[in-house]
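Quick one - first record:
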Amino acid sequence: MINFVKMQGTGNDFIILNGIEEELGKYSDLAKKTCDRHFGIGADGMIVVENSSIADIKMVFFNADGTEAPMCGNGIRCFSKYVYDNGIIQKTTFKVETLAGIMEPKLNIEDGIVKSVTVNMGAPKLSTKSFPIITDEETFINKEIKVEDEIFNISTLSVGTIHSIIKVDNLEIIDIKKIGPLIENYRVFSKKTNVNFCEIVDKNNIKMLTWERGVGQTLACGTGACASAFICSKLYNTSKKVKVHVLGGILEIELIEGLIFMTGPAELICKGVFYLD
């Protein structure tokens, strides 16, 4: 058996495990077991806390299907609250090692409680050499693809992990459970892609629906919100500071001197013991 904590950030939920204190076995298999919503605890992903030789702490992230991902925006906020609340880290600003590089969260504390977390997500990567895609193009911004006889304008980039952004006039007409997996597995994406549909409400507000590779539709996606805010600013002249409205709440994204800063909630759902087979 293993001890676990379940947390959520704007509806994106995660199982968090302490890999420093417990022997956890093969992470991929464990993620599939713990994240199963019928036979496990149930979550979009699994996060493991590990020691780091290059930062204050290390975050390891696995999707619900057992695939490892380099980063998770909502996940790193929950991770940051977890390590602070459990005394693993005692600073309110610290560095986290991830497969996407060193991330820098800042805990926003009120009356001793972590109310939200701001993360410097770094600079977006537009070069197609930065993410798995089959193309001779140097970038894949505002390109046309054809899916189910429908043309979509798509922009793909990396904000710690690969994201494809599609602006639409009305999110309500998007059948994300049909179109999402088709774009996720579109032929140019050699290792699939995360898919985010965006509707611009005004210069300061964006609505977003997300289809995550290895998970399916989720209530939120932090890295997706960062990628969407960047593309909407670059192509459609939205503000450098926007609220991204997702099904699970609101994320605040700010673009400052080429860097992306994300602020959002991180909340404890429950904690307990998981019994392995």
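second record:
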Amino acid sequence: MSICIIENKSELGAGTRGASLCVDAIRMSALAGGSDFFQRHQVNTLIVPQDDLYKETRHPFAKRIDGIKKVYEMVSREVSKNLLDQQLPIIISGDHSSAGGTLAGIKKAYPDSRLGVVWIDAHADMHSPYTTPSGNVHGMPLAAALGWDNKEAKCNEVDTETQQLWDELKSVGTSQPKVSPENLLFVGVRDTERAEDLLIKQRGVTNYKVDEIRTRGASVMARRALEEKFADCDMIYLSLDVDGMDCEATSYGTGTPVKNGLLKEEVKEFIQVILESGKVCAFELVEVNPLLDDKGNKMAEIALEILEFAESILTKLKKPVLA
């Protein structure tokens, strides 16, 4: 299978600075360890509008959403192009907000296909400008992909310009929702707010909790997901936020670390089963922040290990998804 790497250094959606160094930190890890990961495949580096970080945001409930919309469009175009060229993209992104752009690109390329989403993360990322406690858009990509405003849990009075930009963000790639809740799987989500909890309960979103994965086994739970969640899906998007892992066992090198997460070995075991299904059309890794790493460049080293592990599985597959 032909693999390409997309580098997206945007951290416009994050609340702390440093995630834009994610790609460089992983590259430095590869260089220090003698890995040629970045030389083995075509690499497409997106030129993202980082200057927006220096500007005062006009949208307190969706900070830098105007710049993030541009990132969504760039990511969507690149992902769509790669898929239509029969390439499977591995996306390395700064913050998780642009995962909405990845989902938009997948649906732009294959609008009639049923998409499953594996979301390995400490957070649900299902806020909207109407519910966000922080205004950081890296907490909103799934709400955008699902087309959910969640006004029932509204706590913010959102201005007209922000509303319009949010609607435009939801419509990047296609005006239709990119994924259905029955085909969305949370893995390791453990830090949510009330507005998200209401959505998860009302819409029946499945969450494989850390204790369940540890007790039953990661590979067992992954096979269960393929049978119960993704049997009718044509393809799967696999998204890994490194804060889904336990910060004590890995490192604090991410913007929003949460204790009691997955172990690195559990993540690898889970994604192996999903990748070997042959349904994965894109794999994304996000939120490495070397400025916050308490163990040198440890989180980037772990990220590289997982990326190379995923690559080794994907290269053994005989044909692209939906070939």
